[in-house]
Amino acid sequence: MTHSHPEQLVQSFLMGSKQTRSGQRRLLLLSKIASLGSLSAAAKACGMSYKGAWQAVEAMNLAAGEELVRAQKGGSGGGGMVLTAAGESLVNAYLLFNEQMQHWMRELEALSPGVLSQLEIMRKISMKTSARNLFHGSVTAITKGAVNSEVLLSIGDDAQVVAQITPESVERLGLEVGSDAYALVKASWVILSEDLGDGFKTSARNQFCGQVSALEKGAVNSDVTIELKGGQQVSAIVTNQSLQSLGLELSSRCCALFKASHVLLAVAD
């Protein structure tokens, strides 16, 4: 899929994963605190909850290893929040970086038209994780509940991954509709079944059907790779007995199932 915010990818390559959309919101929060002198006002300006803003400030202080924001007592408003010298230096560096990055991006695209469209592929190749299944996409819906929130991630080719995470995780990851995110699923969490078409019903929220493209048998378990429509793949680790029961072999049709609660969401943050 084409990334709608190439500047975020450029930032992640130049300054590391802390410069993604969520990271930018935190740095924007710092600049708003500097201009508004109030955490509540800055949070509102950034579209964040007050609790989320507090957590962001604490996370930034921890990451920086020193205080970036401090409370200020007194004044007609009864006090507020101000940046420390370290916080001001960070915001100034961020603003300068953004200014120079925009200039560099225009020059880069002029030198080689279309080069920015390759950054998404470069980032996926460079991402490391122990989870065998990695799906990249965009958040299309978030349904918040008292205990868990349901996040819908569009991964292209009309396919979607449903994840169930806590509201705190949604806030911590800075997820919202349109956010860039990754869904990770361990191969051992994937269940395989026969492809029964429309007559197939299961409680698993995620169902992907395709053709077995690779099969590696071990002493006890087998590593099965299923190729989906559009070329995406799902890997599963199943017992040899299950493989035999399903009658799976290369080119066989089958479905990969995994629960929404078994999906881990990640952002480059």
Characterization of the model:
There is one protein chain. The protein is of the alpha+beta class and 269 residues long. The protein folds into two domains: 6-121, Orthogonal Bundle (Arc Repressor Mutant, subunit A); 130-269, Beta Barrel (OB fold (Dihydrolipoamide Acetyltransferase, E2P)), CATH 2.40.50. 36% of the residues lie in helices and 30% in strands. It has helices at residues 6-15, 21-36, 39-45, 50-64, 85-111, 119-126, 167-173, 240-246, and strands at 69-72, 80-83, 133-144, 149-156, 159-165, 180-185, 191-194, 206-217, 221-227, 233-239, 253-258, 264-266. The strands form three sheets. A five-stranded antiparallel β-sheet has the order 5-4-3-6-12. A hairpin with a 7-residue loop joins β1 (69-72) and β2 (80-83). α2 crosses α3, α2 (21-36) packs across α5 and α3 (39-45) crosses α4. The longest helix has 27 residues, at 85-111. The radius of gyration is 23 Å and the shape is elongated. It starts with 5 loop residues before the first helix and ends with a strand. The model is unreliable at 13-19 (pLDDT under 50).
- Supply the CATH superfamily name of the largest domain: RNA polymerase II/Efflux pump adaptor protein, barrel-sandwich hybrid domain
CATH class of the largest domain: Mainly Beta
Shape: elongated
> Which strand order does the major sheet show?
5-4-3-6-12
Structural class by sheet pairing and helices: alpha+beta
Instruction: Report the total helices.
Output: 8
Integer-rounded radius of gyration: 23 Å
Secondary-structure arrangement, i.e. CATH architecture of the largest domain: Beta Barrel
N to C succession of SSEs: HHHHEEHHEEEHEEEEEHEE
Q: Averaged pLDDT, please?
A: 81
What name does CATH use for the topology of the largest domain? OB fold (Dihydrolipoamide Acetyltransferase, E2P)
Cα(first) to Cα(last) distance is 20 Å
Stretches where pLDDT is under 50 for at least 5 consecutive residues are 13-19
Number of domains: 2
Which percent band covers the strand fraction?
25-35%
* Number of beta strands: 12
**Major β-sheet annotation:** 5 strands, antiparallel
* Residues in helices, as a percent range: 25-40%
For this structure, the quaternary state is single chain
